[in-house]
Design brief:
The chain is built from 16 helices and 10 strands. By secondary structure, the protein is an alpha/beta fold. Helix 6 links the parallel strand 6 and strand 7.
């Protein structure tokens, strides 16, 4: 009887081991899928994506993500419709505006990366008592008029009872690469910039940060991942894997300090010194610029839509649920736990 129990126990152990080996073998044999991601800029602002690569989170999800930067918004949208990209990382305004054109394929927002405005206003001299009304009859060097930073700059001006292009002049026709040189050369009174250009100018003493637009805008769906509804319907497993890896990277960012994040980003930004990356990441962390999970809050999304209406870019509201699919993000957050080692760090 005793021997029989031993045999049964051994049989159960062997059975469990065989099941574990089979499960591991199945996981290893999963084919790697290639996903083409287009970003509107190669920026520290998009750190979680590069961390998902460097920390092997895409690899864990059997994804080979190929990233390409296309700085022209129309070009990046065209690449999606031409099937040259699978997912794009841009501001959500395009999906809202294009919905009104009744295109055969809708752009669908599937996950959020940036949840607050990461742009800043700079001047040539320190202005510790700066107020937005000080911009009246002044000139700001801005960016492309349809870009997310520019849309929100104009929103902040309107919020502070300043009419863009009437009471405050904004220069939009200077190329991004030339704007800092123009400002240093005496063009404009202020300049509206994102990192790392802000830190570059601060470190050189060429300009002074006087206002963060985040303080005026608050939480908003600033930068999202978009795809077409047809790609979503044909590739739900790939999309789920992508969002899984993104969330793992967001968790990693949330539970690591700026120095750890900066060191991880060095390979993605070899042109920047480590101390500059640390400074930028610290600023982003302190302002809670990065979304802590991929779920797009409807209220923050609707806030962006209302800003488009107020600016005249959109005539009336659209049903945002028609261009928003949180199902992948919600599934990810529900099923992927926070690693115990992260909790020990806090």
């Amino acid at each position: 009887m005793k021997n029989k129990k031993i045999y049964v126990t051994l049989f159960i152990i062997i059975l469990i081991l065989n099941m574990l080996v089979a499960a591991c073998k199945t996981q290893k044999e999963q084919p790697v899928k290639t996903l083409h991601l287009k970003e509107v800029a190669h920026s520290i602002l998009y750190a979680p994506i590069y961390i998902a690569i460097s920390q092997g989170f895409f690899e864990e999800e059997t994804l080979n993500v190929k990233i390409e930067t296309l700085t022209d918004n129309e070009e990046i949208i065209a690449s999606l419709y031409a099937k040259n990209s699978d997912i794009i990382l841009v501001g959500p305004q395009t999906s809202i505006i294009l919905f009104k054109e009744n295109l055969e394929e809708k752009l669908v927002n599937i996950a959020q990366l940036v949840q607050r405005d990461p742009s800043y206003l700079m001047s040539r001299e320190p202005k510790p008592n700066f107020k937005w009304k000080d911009l009246k009859k002044k000139i700001i060097i801005g960016g492309i008029q349809t870009s997310t930073p520019e849309i929100l700059l104009e929103y902040v001006l309107l919020k502070n009872d300043l009419s863009p292009y009437k009471e405050v002049d904004i220069i939009n026709n200077i190329p991004k690469d030339a704007s800092i040189g123009a400002f240093k050369g005496g063009v404009g009174d202020y300049i509206h910039l994102l990192e790392p250009e802000v830190s570059h100018l601060e470190n050189s003493g060429s300009a002074y940060l006087i206002a963060s637009l985040d303080n005026e805008v608050g939480e908003i769906a600033y930068t999202n991942f978009l795809t077409t509804d047809s790609y979503l319907n044909k590739n739900p497993i790939i999309v789920q894997k992508f969002v899984n890896a993104l969330y793992k990277a967001q968790l990693w960012c949330n539970y690591h300090n700026p120095e750890e994040i900066a060191k991880t980003l060095q390979d993605s930004f070899p042109e920047y010194k480590l101390d500059l990356i640390i400074k930028v990441v610290t600023r982003y962390k302190n302002q809670k610029i990065w979304a802590v999970n991929p779920i797009i809050e409807l209220q923050a999304f609707d806030k962006f839509q209302q800003i488009l209406i107020d600016s005249g870019a959109l005539g009336e509201k659209i049903p945002l649920t028609s261009i928003l699919d949180n199902s992948f993000a919600e599934k990810t957050v529900k099923e992927i736990p926070i690693p115990k080692e992260y909790l020990k760090k806090k």
